[in-house]
Amino acid sequence: MPEPLTSSGPAETRARPFPWFCPKCRRQEVRRETIPYQCQRLHDGRQIAVDLASFSVPRCGHCGELVFDYEAEEQLKQASVKKAIAMDSNVLEKVSKDFEQQEVP
Known about the structure:
By secondary structure, this protein is of the alpha+beta class. The chain has a domain at 30-100. 30% of the residues lie in helices and 28% in strands. It is built from one helix and two strands, in the order ββα. It has a two-stranded antiparallel ribbon. The termini are far apart.
C-alpha cells in the first residue's frame, strides 16, 4: 500500500515570471521595480500616511501602471502596522506626561 502524502510545511508557490500583461494598456511590459512610494491606508479605523523609500512593486514600463501583488501588499501592510505602533507609542507618551503633570488633590 502506498504511503499517504504528507507535508512537513507550507506548500511553496512559485511566482509568475515577468514580464506580465498590464491591466491598463494591455502590453506585456510589467516588471518588478523598486520605487519610492507614499499612500494613505486605513488601520484600525484610522487614516495613516505610509511612506516607503524602497517599495518593490510590479510596474508597467509603457504606461507606468502599478500592479499590486501579494508581496507589494505585504510591504504596505507591514509599513502601516509599524507606523500605527509608532503613533500609538507617541500618544501613550503624551498621555502619561500629561497625567504626571496633573496635581493630585
